[in-house]
Design goal:
This protein is an alpha/beta fold. The chain is about 30% helix and about 20% strand.
């Protein structure tokens, strides 16, 4: 082996086929033609760094993840060069974090070889390598780690995950003056060391990116505990009524489902920060482009999506975007911020524009039909061949200018980059 000039951990095979040395011994490569002369040996005394990364397989994965408060799992493939580059970084980050969180059940760093365990890769829908997934008490979080691949960035990410997501309110004044510009869940508990609060805290940890979680205890919470411990959701807006949770506070599944329904809106905002994860969900976008201060158009869009398209949830993503920030996608459909509000579909192949924003409420069911026309292929077909025969008046078939091809997708460019990941579809592993 020979030293490439880097650290002692970076060893590369020598071209000398007959020389094989243990890891602590390094070779400074000397001129050697098919081992006609022996290379100079230099002994390098080093202490191997103990890795805190646990290798997961079908036999231990459930037990380890279910008993870990927070687990960061590296799903990798040995042949993937990005996986190889991440290994030493991931291991060093695990060692740094272990010094701060020595309890092995608090934080776990683990890895899965997706070549050896394709069943696990399929279970967690791994489509690219390396993928870093976050788990809490065995539950995989929707948002994976997509930050910088450095020791400090990964360690900082774990530190953020260990910050208590629940803020304790200390007075009635704080309770009555909370910020109504964010979705908020407040828990009212008699005691902090109760099973009710333990469940509330687990829910807060899972939904920490979607809602603000607050809690009060004892005398401060008493006015809201006339029938026992309580949990209330406060939507955005001063005039919007609160919603009370009526289920069992010790039932995690019910509590989580209720809070998730309230905290994760039907219509989400797309930004450059979350665009990659939204794109990776793999379903088309129905997007309202609106000016940031135009709350009225957004409210109308949200109402009509809820009224017309609730049954389509899961087949299309309902989103809204800032016109100024997303000028480029607007240009693809020959629009500018001056034209907003604009509704469009991005199918990841093409973009299609909803005819008139005013039709959203003026023509009943038109938004739903727009989405159904995407699913049936009608939108794409009409761009190439004009209106379907059943939609035209006899003798007027040629009155409409036919566009030969719809604008190309703009949001597919926000998908995971091939300069950071190797995609599973490039090989037949999964």
């Amino acid at each position: 082996m020979w030293w490439d000039g880097g650290s002692s951990a970076r060893l590369r095979p020598s071209v000398c086929p007959s020389v094989c040395l243990p890891a602590p011994v390094l070779l400074i490569r000397s001129p050697c033609v098919l081992c006609s002369s022996l290379p100079l040996q230099v002994t390098w005394f080093s202490t191997p760094v103990r890795s805190e990364v646990i290798t997961l397989d079908g036999g231990n994965i459930d037990d380890i993840l279910n008993n870990a408060g927070v687990a960061l799992v590296n799903f990798y493939a040995d042949w993937c060069r990005f996986s190889q580059m991440l290994h030493p970084i991931f291991e060093e980050a695990s060692n740094v974090v272990r010094e701060e969180f020595p309890d092995t059940k608090q934080v776990v760093f683990a890895r899965v070889d997706c070549d050896q365990h394709s069943d696990i890769a399929q279970r967690y829908r791994i489509s690219k390598y390396p993928t870093l997934k976050l788990f809490r008490n065995g539950m995989m979080m929707k948002r994976e780690y997509r930050g910088q691949r450095s020791v400090s960035a990964i360690a900082d990410f774990i530190r953020q995950q260990k910050v208590d997501p629940v803020k304790e309110l200390q007075s009635l004044e704080e309770v009555t003056s909370i910020d109504r510009s964010r979705r908020t869940v407040i828990g009212y508990f008699e005691r902090k060391d109760s099973e009710n609060y333990s469940t509330f805290e687990k829910v807060a940890n899972i939904l920490r990116d979607d809602c603000v979680f607050l809690a009060t205890f004892g005398e401060i919470s008493k006015p809201e505990r006339f029938s026992g411990d309580n949990m209330i959701y406060k939507p955005i807006g001063e005039s919007v009524p609160d919603m009370v949770y009526l289920g069992s506070l010790t039932n995690f599944d019910l509590s989580h489902a209720w809070a998730q329904d309230k905290c994760v809106p039907l219509v989400r905002e797309i930004t450059f920060e979350n665009g990659e994860e939204l794109t990776e969900e793999g379903i088309p976008f129905l997007i309202l482009f609106h000016l940031k201060e135009d709350h009225e158009s957004l409210e109308r869009f949200q109402q009509e999506v809820a009224r017309q398209l609730i049954s389509e949830k899961g087949s299309i993503n309902f989103l809204h975007a800032d016109c100024d920030k997303f000028r480029h996608p607007l240009l693809h459909i020959q629009k500018t911020p001056a034209d907003c509000p604009v509704i469009a579909i991005d199918s990841f192949r093409h973009m299609y524009v909803f005819p008139e924003f005013s039709d959203l409420t003026r023509v009943p069911g038109k938004l739903r039909q727009f989405v159904l026309d995407l699913h049936s292929g009608k939108l794409h077909r009409e761009f190439h061949h004009g209106p379907d025969p059943t939609d035209t008046t006899p003798g007027q078939e040629d009155s409409r200018v036919v566009q030969s091809s719809p604008p190309e997708s703009s949001f597919q460019k926000l998908a995971p980059s091939e300069t950071r990941y190797t995609f599973a579809r490039d090989r037949d592993e999964l």
